C-alpha cells in the first residue's frame, strides 16, 4: 500500500449529467481543472456530492479514470464507494483501483439493518485486503454512524488510514480526535463547522462546501494553521452563509445551482432530482452575494 497524505482542504467534485441523464465528461474535466486552481489538497470523485449512490460500476470507474487523468498526479484522487454489501463494495473498489485512484472512501453498510462492530470491522478488513488501497471510512449515515469503539477495533487494518466524520455529529468528531487521532487522519465533513473542527485539531476536511467555496475554504484552513483566528472567523461566516442557502434535501441540485451562479457548469442533477427552482436559485444568489463570491446585479435607474 502506498503512503498518502490526506490533510488540508479536500474538495469533492460533482458529477455533471446531461439532459439524457448521462455523464458529461467535458464538464467534469472543467470542474476538476477549476478546483486544482483553488489550492485544494486532494479531490474526491463519486462521493455524496458526486451522487455516487446513483452511479453504476462502469460509470464510477470511468469518472475516476477521467479525474485521475485530469489531475495528472498533482494531488491525490479519492474514489467514493457507497454500497451495501462487502461483495459490492469490493467490486466497486477494485474498479476504482483500475481507474488509478490513490485512495477509496467507503461508507459503512447502512440499508435498514446494521452490522455488528465485528462485522463492520470485517467489512473494511476484506476491502483493504482485496484492494490494498488506503481507505477512508466515510461516517456519514446518521442512523448507521460507526462509533469510536468500533473504529478502534480496526486499528489492525493497515489500509484504513482515515475517518471522514459527517453525519452532523460534532460530539463524535470530538471523541475521534480525543481517542484515535494518533492512528487515523481525522477529516471533518461537518460543512458548517469546519472552523471549530480545525481548532479542535482535525487534520483537514473532505466535504461538499469546498466544492462550492474552494478558495474560501482553503483560506479558512490556512488561516487556522497560521493562528489568524479573526480572519478564520470571517471566512467561516461567509462560508456558513452559502452552506445555509444550499443545505437542502435536493443538495445535488442546489450545489449545481451555486456553481452555475458563479460561472461554472456542473450539469444537471441525476433524476429523479430536478434542477433548483427559481426560488432556490434566488436564495443561493443572495447568499453568494453576501459571501462576496459574486457581485450584485446593478439596479436600473
UniProtKB/TrEMBL annotation:
UniProt xrefs under SUPFAM superfamilies: Aldolase (SSF51569)
Keyword terms of this UniProt record: Lyase
Record's keyword annotation contains Lyase: yes
One Pfam family hit: DHDPS
Keyword Lyase appears in the UniProt entry: yes
CDD domains tied to this protein: DHDPS-like
UniProt family annotation: Belongs to the DapA family.
Name used for this protein in its record: Dihydrodipicolinate synthase family protein
Species, as recorded: Gulosibacter faecalis
Amino acid at each position: 500500500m502506498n503512503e498518502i497524505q490526506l490533510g488540508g482542504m479536500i474538495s469533492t467534485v460533482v458529477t455533471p449529467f446531461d439532459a439524457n441523464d448521462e455523464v458529461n465528461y467535458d464538464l467534469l474535466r472543467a470542474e476538476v481543472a477549476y478546483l486544482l486552481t483553488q489550492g485544494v489538497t486532494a479531490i474526491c470523485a463519486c462521493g455524496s456530492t458526486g451522487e455516487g449512490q446513483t452511479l453504476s460500476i462502469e460509470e464510477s470507474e470511468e469518472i475516476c479514470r477521467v479525474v485521475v487523468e485530469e489531475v495528472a498526479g498533482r494531488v491525490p484522487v479519492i474514489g467514493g464507494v457507497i454500497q451495501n454489501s462487502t461483495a459490492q463494495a469490493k467490486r466497486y473498489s477494485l474498479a476504482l483501483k483500475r481507474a488509478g485512484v490513490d485512495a477509496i472512501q467507503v461508507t459503512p453498510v447502512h440499508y435498514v439493518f446494521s452490522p455488528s462492530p465485528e462485522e463492520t470491522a470485517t467489512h473494511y478488513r476484506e476491502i483493504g485486503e482485496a484492494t490494498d488501497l488506503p481507505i477512508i471510512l466515510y461516517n456519514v449515515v446518521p442512523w448507521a454512524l460507526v462509533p469510536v469503539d468500533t473504529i478502534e477495533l480496526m486499528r489492525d487494518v493497515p489500509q484504513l488510514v482515515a475517518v471522514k466524520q459527517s453525519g452532523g455529529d460534532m460530539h463524535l468528531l470530538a471523541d475521534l480526535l480525543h481517542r484515535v487521532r494518533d492512528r487515523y487522519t481525522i477529516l471533518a465533513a461537518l460543512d458548517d463547522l469546519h472552523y471549530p473542527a480545525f481548532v479542535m485539531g482535525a487534520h483537514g476536511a473532505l466535504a461538499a462546501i469546498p466544492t462550492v467555496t474552494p478558495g474560501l475554504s482553503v483560506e479558512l484552513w490556512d488561516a487556522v494553521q497560521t493562528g489568524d483566528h479573526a480572519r478564520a472567523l470571517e471566512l467561516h461566516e461567509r462560508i456558513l452563509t452559502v452552506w445555509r442557502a444550499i443545505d437542502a434535501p435536493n443538495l445535488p441540485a442546489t450545489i449545481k445551482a451555486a456553481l452555475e451562479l458563479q460561472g461554472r457548469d456542473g450539469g444537471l442533477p441525476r433524476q429523479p432530482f430536478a434542477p433548483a427552482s427559481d426560488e432556490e436559485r434566488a436564495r443561493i444568489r443572495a447568499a453568494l452575494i453576501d459571501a462576496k463570491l459574486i457581485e450584485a446585479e446593478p439596479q436600473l435607474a
